[in-house]
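User: Show me sequence and structure for the first protein, then do the same for the second.

Assistant: Starting with the first protein.
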Amino acid sequence: MLRSMGVDSRGKLIYISAGAVILASGGASQAFEKNLNPGDVSGDGYMLAYESGARLVNMEFMQSGIGFSHPLMNIFNGYIWAAHPLLTNSEGESFLEKYIPDSMQPEYVMDEHRKHFPFSSSDDSKYLEIAIQKEIRAGRGGRHGGIIADLRHMKDDYICHVPDDCGLHHMWPVARNHMKDKGVDLLTQKVEINVFAHAINGGVCIDAEGSTSLPGLYAAGEVAGGPHGADRLGGNMMVTCQVFGKIAGTNAAKWAGIHRPQRESAAMYPDDRLWEILHRKADTQGLIHELQSVNQHHLLISRNEAGLMQVLGTVERIGRQLAESPRQDAINMEAFRLYCLITASRLMGEAALRRQESRGAHYREDYPIVNPKLDRPMFSDQSI
């Protein structure tokens, strides 16, 4: 039997006994300044599972990609690169050439990225995200913090002469009209783009039955780790939700049918330090913003030991500030959200620091190639 506590809409503490529990709380992309997910995707499931003793896996593999960042936020689909948009920094300089090998042309790198949206260190498209993040990190972003993208040449007469093996001819008019409906005319104005956090490929480790290392605890969707490896095809998270959602639900119901919960009084539950976190009065928004900023610069794409140590140092300091902040009577759910983001950031940062290689969505500029010694067969129970 599993026991947990929660807070209802009136701020009242409630206790729940269950034969089985299914985690389906999503990922932790809100740990990053730029992300394409709702505000509640803040690592809740990772924190709850980790502090309950469940095994987590592959937390260093964060799927990310390029998106429009100003004047609105929207995905920057891979097929757009086939038309070779013009990229410049705040000084009006073309910069991609600085980050690619001498034997490569910027157009080749863009052509490689037309094949997929997410960042991957597995092919030469990686130089786009690396270059964009490094220029922004160096303070050469535009007025709104992104890289300036000029798509004004991508008119119909130009697009029709671009070879299309990625859906450009069909999808570009759709995307262009969608943006125009939102008030952005890509054929008359420049925009800014940035690198966005999208989804974590790892999470609470599950087996083929959707079960975690804790008996009676199941997981499905982005919070679950195991269905994906270092890379993940776009759309496969839906498979994780639908397929493992059904599997986890079916097996959790069977487990709960055998392991029936018993009625218990609240007095049987020990005090939980998370209950104390809920009552901390702190500048949660300011601390969340600080955490998002350091993660955006040092945990999202171009990682190195110094940057990851800065992430972990910030995580430790913010966690200490939260724990030492004054106690109040009213419940502060933003304090709980901050605590979840702190925990998820630490797990991701420690995993990224430990993996001294580049593999899939994990790129270490101080270890830029794959280490064959860290290869794992698919479905192996081993993890780094």
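Switching to the second protein now.
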Amino acid sequence: MMTGFIGTGSMGSMLIDAFIRSGVLQPEEIIAFNRTPAKAEALAARHLGLTVATSIQEAAKKSRILFLCVKPSHFPQVVADLAPVIKEEQIVISITSPVMISQLEEKLQGKVAKIIPSITNYMLSGATLCMYGSRIEERDRQVLERLVSAISHPVEVTEQYTRVSSDLTSCGPAFIAFLLQKLVDAAVAETGIARDAAACMAGEMLLGTGMLLTAGGMSVEELQRQVAVPGGITAAGLQLLDREVSDVFSKLIQATHAKYYEDVEKIEEAFKGLTP
């Protein structure tokens, strides 16, 4: 069963690398297309046996499952190129949150799903968001979840919560990395500790914290109670954080949602120019 990828930028190449590393797909089972051929050819050089398609249509015709890993603004044209060749039995997957399943189902004959990956999938970890269109059957769902489960923990959500779920799973690593960078910067500035040492300690701390909150079964509240002894150093730090950043994350979600709805409107207008 061939799996195709339209777009081999950061997320498309990450997914290909992760699927192959996990063993759920072999290079011979993958066909990829990129409008900049050198990017797809670099993947083929890294994974011998991977096929580089010469066109979007070639990748689509040879694929049972087709991942669309392109920017939101490119979707209308990609869908227009795919519409004449997609068959009813094929599964088309968008990894882009502002593109609606209904828009793809209107323009394409195939079965449609939306799967939002995370950079953490590169390490065969983290969560992947799964949404299924009206034509997806149970056997299709099982096939997709087998793929996704090899590189992550699949979480089914409704499109209503696509954006906020993506804030947590897909954008979240960048947000947490930013906060960790600020913590490391402050540690270096205030004490003179070596940056490499501070960054290593912070990274290991984050890894262990994630394990406590998942495999360890701890809630975020319980973890704080376990670490912060009343009247102690950690408690003093948490009190400061509560005063200083209590509304920052509400503003963060408002900002990501504002950009999301802006993108949704632009894509909707672009799709109106396409014929079914």
